[in-house]
């Protein structure tokens, strides 16, 4: 596929783009900073500028395409990850402006260019737990895509807004538009640097519902979205199958969620952030776990 990927130079994108390229895709990274990876094409552009987004959707991917003499070939899919990645980086109003306006312009340009598949990054924060004032517990566990999304912070508000925007564009055009409610992205090297304190202090993971997503498995999730057509508008939780702490799931329930309704039985280390929908509709099957590095971490 010919894929336009926004935000590919960020923490998640710099792992997902190489994964997609390993699957044989041609990727154009649209970002404020280029991604230094062999074979990837880069375009510097501002997602909040409608003209720039429409221009890049109707442009060549690289200079080599001039020799083909076939003109602009267009894109088979858009993967939209570009965003201000959380609160407290810039002002709340700027977080909301960039994330909502940027998503509108990217999807608008994509559907007007006739792109049939759009995948965009939503967030675990939409459930209102991650950036809540004080402690906020889920309405029920495990948290699935039907859980209410009523956050209080500007970042999560922008993601809820983006989901509404995407749903409306899908209704208008019939394109496949899939939103990924991505949990806390962990790069492979971070197991050694972060997880020693995570696995023995569950309090540090409460805001993430004790979940995480390995950046490599996020690449797999995007690929599965590219492979499966015809689902219309969908949102999917994206996480690994296990929790990010050493305690068993039953112990975490006793400590944190004793008064929270449990809708199904949960295995020994099963995530509280349900990925059943992604498994059922897309065949998503995470391959990586921090537990693979546990011997290293305990040295």
Structure description:
With 299 residues, the chain is an alpha/beta fold. The protein has one domain (2-188, 212-241, 272-288): NAD(P)-binding Rossmann-like Domain (Rossmann fold). It is 36% helix and 16% strand. It contains 10 helices and 11 strands. The chain has helices at 13-22, 50-57, 65-68, 92-112, 154-173, 190-200, 215-227, 249-256, 276-282, 294-298; strands spanning 2-6, 26-31, 41-44, 77-80, 117-123, 140-141, 176-182, 185-186, 213-214, 233-238, 261-262. The chain has a 7-stranded parallel β-sheet, sandwiched between helices. A two-stranded parallel sheet has the order 6-11. Helix 2 runs parallel beside helix 4 and helix 4 (92-112) packs parallel to helix 5 (154-173). It is globular and about 65 Å long. The relative contact order is 0.13. The model has no long low-confidence stretch (mean pLDDT 96).
Short synopsis of the structure:
This protein has 299 residues and is α/β, with parallel strands linked by helices.
Please state the oligomeric state of the protein chains shown: single chain
Strand portion:
15-25%
**SS-based class:** alpha/beta
Largest pleated sheet: 7 strands, parallel
Give the helix proportion (percent range).
Answer: 25-40%
The succession of helices and strands, N to C, reads EHEEHHEHEEHEEHEHEHEHH
* DSSP, total strands: 11
What is the CATH topology classification name? Rossmann fold
> What overall form do the CA principal axes indicate?
globular
CATH architecture: 3-Layer(aba) Sandwich
Could you list the spans in which at least 5 consecutive residues all have pLDDT below 50? none
Whole-number total of structural domains:
1
- Please state the CA-atom Rg, rounded to the nearest Å: 19 Å
Quote the distance from N terminus to C terminus: 44 Å
Q: Report the CATH C-level class.
A: Alpha Beta
Number of helical elements: 10
Strand order of the largest sheet: 3-2-1-4-5-7-10
Q: Average pLDDT across residues?
A: 96
CATH superfamily: NAD(P)-binding Rossmann-like Domain
């Amino acid at each position: 596929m010919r894929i336009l990927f926004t935000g590919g130079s960020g923490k998640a994108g710099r792992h997902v783009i190489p994964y997609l390229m390993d699957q044989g895709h041609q990727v154009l990274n649209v970002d404020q900073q280029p991604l230094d990876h062999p074979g990837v094409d880069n375009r510097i552009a501002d997602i909040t500028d409608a003209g720039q987004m429409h221009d890049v959707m109707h442009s060549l991917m690289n200079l080599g395409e001039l020799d083909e003499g076939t003109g602009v070939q267009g894109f088979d899919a858009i993967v939209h990850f570009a965003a201000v990645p959380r609160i407290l980086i810039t002002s709340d109003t700027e977080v909301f402006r960039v994330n909502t306006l940027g998503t509108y312009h990217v999807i608008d340009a994509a559907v007007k260019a006739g792109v049939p598949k759009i995948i965009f990054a939503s967030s675990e924060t939409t459930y209102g737990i991650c950036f809540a004032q004080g402690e906020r517990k889920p309405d029920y566990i495990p948290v699935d895509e039907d859980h209410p999304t009523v956050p209080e912070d500007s970042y999560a508000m922008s993601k809820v807004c983006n989901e509404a925007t995407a749903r409306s564009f899908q209704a208008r055009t019939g394109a496949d538009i899939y939103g990924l409610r991505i949990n806390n992205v962990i790069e492979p090297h971070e197991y050694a640097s972060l997880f020693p304190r995570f696995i023995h202090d569950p309090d540090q993971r409460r805001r993430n519902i004790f979940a995480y997503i390995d950046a490599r498995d996020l690449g797999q999730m995007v690929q599965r979205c590219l492979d499966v057509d015809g689902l219309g508008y969908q949102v999917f939780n994206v996480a690994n199958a296990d929790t990010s702490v050493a305690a068993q799931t039953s112990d975490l329930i006793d400590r944190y969620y004793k008064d929270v309704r449990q809708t199904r039985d949960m295995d020994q280390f099963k995530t509280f952030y349900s990925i059943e929908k992604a498994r059922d509709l897309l065949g998503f099957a995470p391959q990586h776990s921090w537990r693979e590095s546990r011997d290293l971490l305990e040295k």
